[in-house]
Amino acid sequence: MAKKAAKYKRVVLKLSGEALMGSKGFGIDPKVNESIAKEIKEARKTGTQIAVVIGGGNIFRGLQAAAGGMDRSTADYMGMLATMLNGLAMQDALERIGVDTRVLTAIQVRQLAELYIRRRAMRHLEKGRVVIFVCGTGNPFFTTDTAAALRASEIGADIILKATKVDGVYSKDPVKYKNAKKFDELKYMTALEKRLKVMDSTAISMCMDNEIPIIVFNLKKTGNIKRAVEGKKIGTLIS
Question: Which residues is 162 bridged to in the sheet?
């Protein structure tokens, strides 16, 4: 594997479940899944160790189900299992293009994935494998954003790369408001105080406490994952 200059030794890439569904509106679009896998493969060529945390909103949303009357814990566990489906789909796409991948789960499902153990995860990364963390933290009432912050803290990641459908963090929704201001850089406290919806407050607080910066960038622009791991200026840096 040819290695180029990379700014970061180890990163956590946070993908939303919605990123996998493309324009389908539900589930997983195989073409989009394959496209993201190719982007991860290219980023991996820099020599950066890549761990991935995937949400499950394309299949099931715990908060919405809870709002509809379902028990919140039950709804959250169902959402965690949705991330397992997405993780297995991403593993399949990566391995079909020659990228060694391991899925580590916070909820034990022996036939499908390895149970998350911190040292095992780090060893897989050191061996050059892409590691996909699924089932969030294994606990209800925590988002996959918080899972990304937790896993990044545990494995000693240099940064969290949060892939979104916009090119950074704005003062308000840029789709609805043409006068929305884009931030090139933000402080953790500013993101919290202004409630900018970068990540949930628990995730941002954990990143702040452990001094893990976050880059929010546009996943839809080809090559952006690689640009992020190379340290090129894209999106919004929160630190």
Answer: 14, 216
Q: What is the DSSP letter of 103?
A: E
Contact 90, 36 (CB under 8 A): yes
Other beta carbons within 10 Å of 221:
13
Q: Give the pair of three-digit tokens for residue 117.
A: 């153990």
User: Which of 73, 175, 162, 87 has its CA nearest to residue 130?
Assistant: 87
The β-bridge partners of 164 are: 218
Question: Between 72-96 and 30-44, two packed helices, what is the crossing angle to 10 degrees?
Answer: 70
Q: What is the DSSP string of 36-82?
A: HHHHHHHHHTTT-EEEEEE--TTT--HHHHHHTTS-HHHHHHHHHHH
Q: Are 237 and 11 in contact (CB under 8 A)?
A: no
φ/ψ (deg, to 5) at 140: -70, 165
CB atoms under 10 Å from CB of 222, counted, come to: 12
Q: Rounded CA gap, 214 and 149, in Å?
A: 9
Give the pairing type, strands 159-164 and 114-115. Answer: unpaired
Q: Identify the architecture of domain 10-238 in CATH.
A: 3-Layer(aba) Sandwich (3.40)
Q: What's the predicted TM-score (pTM) here?
A: 0.94
pLDDT tens-digit map of 42-89: 999 999 999 999 999 999 877 788 888 999 999 999 999 999 999 999
Per domain, the residue ranges of the chain are: 10-238
